[in-house]
Specification:
Blueprint lengths: L1 E2 L2 E4 L6 H8 L6 E4 L11 H15 L1 H4 L18 H28 L4 H11 L3 H17 L4 H14 L8 H10 L4 E9 H11 L3 E5 L8 H10 L10 E5 L15 E5 L8 E2 L7 E5 L4 H8 L19 E4 H19 L12 H15 L5
Parallel strand pairs: 2-9, 3-4, 3-6, 4-5, 6-7, 7-9
Antiparallel strand pairs: 1-8, 2-10
Helix pairs in contact: 2-4, 2-7, 4-6, 5-6, 7-9, 12-13
Length: about 375
């Protein structure tokens, strides 16, 4: 393992355009963007599309097409003015989601926060537990979405997009600005959400194309890299300049550091580590707090409390910009400890080789970095 050539924590919150002015070069050939929780703060649009379909099947357009209170981050819609339908909605949702939801709660969300449970997740699901655990609820959603016609899903996806406009972090105007700054750049969305949601996202943002999940393949983790290689193999050619931007929630996009020279995590609970494998092409890692449309509006109006209340523990900090020498001075002892762990990899079962060498050590480095001033 080694440290990257440059690590930047951009500190104080900024707009997406301000961030791109710092990290995007005119010569960049591709911009790879995640969707869920990247284009919108804290919003998994593909998941919300599934909940939108659940509500539409019970209530119809009479409810889903108008403003009404929703619970659990916009997922659950209970209209008590129609009690019979509301009960049917809750019953059908419980039947569909209770088993998969409880499984994901324990092995996904709680395991991400509790160290001993995270260790059990590695033992139970292998070197990439998050990807495995997410697959169960993802398949429940995709199989349900496959029962609806394309026109309906497109309509519901647009409703989801429009309803969450206040939380939008990246806009069409931002991508237009990027094209003016970097003529010829191709912008690709890469997401685990279903096709209907990506179709709307491409239209709304003005992206060039997208990769997405189907019932045959979940487009998350390393599968994103495989699909990008299929639709645009030039992305991985030597000398091609690629910028990858994602929230990489639960570390699902950490493998991007093994394929791109520059990555940026935005609004991330699990940012990229500045420690990578020797074979990695990565040179620069950036981390930033990027404002939503609503936060930018509040800031411009002089509101001192403009940050969204969901940004727990992400108070503005000073900008940190460290080169390789500074990183090595700061993290040298930790890097040596990680490499001692790497030396033990050959003694592990064969099925854990390769993927675990990256994933487990990256997890370890993240934990170790918490002890450093970085």
């Amino acid at each position: 393992m080694r440290v990257v050539d440059r690590f930047v924590d951009h500190g104080a919150p900024l707009s997406f355009r301000e961030l791109c002015a710092r990290v995007l070069e005119e010569e960049h050939d591709y911009l790879i963007l995640d969707l869920d929780k990247t284009t919108h703060l804290g919003r998994n649009l593909g998941e919300l599309l599934e909940w939108e379909l659940c509500a539409h099947e019970v209530y119809g357009d009479s409810v889903t097409g108008r403003p009404i209170r929703r619970w659990f981050s916009g997922r659950v819609l209970v209209d008590w003015t129609q009690p019979t339908k509301a009960v049917r909605y809750l019953e059908s949702g419980a039947r569909r989601w209770a088993p998969a939801g409880m499984h994901y709660l324990v092995w996904g969300k709680l395991a991400a926060r509790i160290p001993w449970l995270r260790r059990l997740a590695y033992n139970r699901f292998g070197p990439e537990p998050t990807t495995v655990v997410q697959r169960r609820p993802q398949m429940v959603a995709l199989n349900h979405l496959a029962t609806a016609n394309e026109a309906l899903l497109h309509k519901l996806a647009r409703q989801v997009w429009t309803r969450n406009a206040r939380d939008q972090v990246i806009t069409r105007e931002d991508l237009d600005w990027i094209r003016a700054r970097s003529p010829g750049i191709e912008i690709i969305l890469s997401s685990a959400s279903p096709k209907a949601m990506l179709d709307v996202a491409v239209e709304e943002l003005g992206a060039d194309r997208a990769t997405y999940s189907t019932t045959e393949r979940i487009n998350s983790g390393r599968a994103k890299i495989d699909q990008l290689r299929e639709i645009c193999p030039r992305v991985f050619d030597p000398g091609v300049k690629v910028l990858g931007i994602t929230d990489t929630s639960y570390g699902e996009d950490h493998c991007w550091t093994e394929h791109f020279a520059c990555v940026v995590d935005i609004n991330s609970p699990t940012p990229f580590t500045p420690i990578v494998t020797q074979a990695s092409p990565i040179r620069a890692v950036h981390s930033a707090i990027v404002l939503t449309r609503e936060e930018q509006r509040r800031r411009s109006s002089g509101d001192a409390g403009y940050l969204d209340t969901r940004r727990k523990g992400r108070a503005p900090t000073e900008r940190v910009d460290l080169d390789r020498e500074a990183l090595h001075s700061l993290l040298g002892d930790l890097l040596a400890e990680i490499n001692r762990l790497a030396a033990r990899m050959p003694s592990l079962p064969r099925q854990w080789e390769g993927a675990l060498a990256l994933t487990q050590l990256t997890e370890t480095s993240r934990a170790l970095l918490k002890r450093s001033p970085l």
